[in-house]
Amino acid sequence: MNEAGSASWNDSLRMLARRYGYASLLTGSLLVLWWGVEGPYPIQYVSNALYVAMIAIILGLELWIPFTSSWGDIRHVTRADVIYFLLAAPIDALQVLLLVGLLAQTVQYHHYLRVFDVWPRQAPILLQLFLATLLVDLFKYWYHRATHEVPFLWRIHSIHHSLNRLEMLRASYFYPIDIFFTVGTGTLVMLMAGAGHEVIIFHNVFAGITGLLNHSNADLECGFLDVILNSPGHHRAHHSLGLPGSHSNYGSFFNFADRLFGTRYLPEDQRCFDPLGLDSSYRMPATFLAQLAVPLRWGDVATQPDATPQ
After folding, report:
1. CA 126 to chain centre
2. What is the DSSP code (8-state) at residue 169?
3. Contact between 101 and 216 (Cβ < 8 Å)
């Protein structure tokens, strides 16, 4: 194959990856997790292997088809990026231990945990996942919205919005207690509804994968999925400085709650949005240890102590 033919072949592959990559990765992850529930291996092993594989795939896509070349990829990772990313796993394990392990396993001593014990445990697992995602999305929507509108919660969540570029390794760039509450909210809601252990793991891993995709610098088009999902385009708008981006797209997976409460926003041209990050009134420190002190030293970070995104 000559050089021109090789270039044409590579361009065709890139076009296919851009057009169908997002849907293929979500569908593939869904099928692997389904097999993890129905197959011979424990869902914990399958989900962990899938998560590692998705990290490798998305990192490769960021190198191969970057959405914005100036944002960078794994070659531009900072020490803080790595620390936040590595912290995500133990924080998630902690909330699983506390909520799914200790709390759920002792439920006979506090029946009030299952406030609405109406979960259809005999339904197909994919239907249970769909119901869990709808339910969790509604509660996560209000928690996420509160982190933008309640000044104290914004002190914690602002660290995530200090990012001036989105890359997969920055998907976990959250103040530790913020990511604990974000994931724990969903877990607790599913427990209260009576969902089983496998459904909770299924949902949390699938939600984690969508978070990696939505924060990545991979140029993945969503097409018709933009109508129902809180896709990468929605999330880039959410991280933008200007309105309506900074007060939009609080949903976790679907965008139904944003539509219902009037906060969905997607630019007609998804490549046209304001710069990402915080405005010049914030002086966010760059190191992990300094950021841990941000909620306690808010006066040194924000010129308006009670500020939320405007």
Report:
1. 20
2. G
3. no
- Show the CA angle centred on residue 55, arms to residues 95 and 81, nearest 5°: 70
Amino acid present at 201:
I
CA 150 to chain centre: 21
Single out the residue of 196, 305, 213, 194 nearest to residue 252, CA to CA: 213
Question: By CB neighbour count within 10 A (0-12 exposed, 13-18 middle, 19+ buried), where does 64 fall?
Answer: middle
- Is the pTM higher than 0.85? The answer reads yes
β-bridge mates for residue 276, sequence order: 240
236 within 8 A of 270, measured Cβ to Cβ: yes
In this predicted structure, what is the pLDDT of residue 215?
A: 94
Nearest C-alpha neighbor of 209 from the set 83, 58, 99: 58
Joined together, the tokens standing for residue 203 give 């949902």
pLDDT, block means (10 residues), the chain with 310 residues: 67 92 96 90 90 95 91 83 89 75 53 66 91 94 95 94 92 92 88 84 91 94 94 93 79 95 91 84 92 93 68
Write out the DSSP string of 43-84. Answer: HHHHHHHHHHHHHHHHHHHHHHSBS-TTT--GGG--HHHHHH
The token pair at 66 is 């970057």
Q: Is 229 helix (H, G, I), strand (E, B) or coil?
A: strand
Asked if residue 178 lies in contact with residue 157, where contact means CB atoms within 8 angstroms, the answer is yes
- State the Cα–Cα distance between residues 97 and 87, nearest whole angstrom: 15
Which amino acid is residue 217, in one-letter code?
Answer: N
Q: Which helix (H) or strand (E) holds 36?
A: helix 3-38
Q: How far is CA 205 from the centre of its chain?
A: 10
Please state the φ and ψ torsions of residue 57, each to the nearest 5 degrees.
-65, -45
96-97-101 Cα angle (round to 5): 95
Mutual angle of helices 125-149 and 176-193, in 10-degree steps: 140
Amino acid at 115: V
Measured in whole angstroms, how far is the alpha carbon of residue 43 from the centre of its chain?
21
Q: Which of 187, 191, 193 lies closest to 205 in space, CA to CA?
A: 187
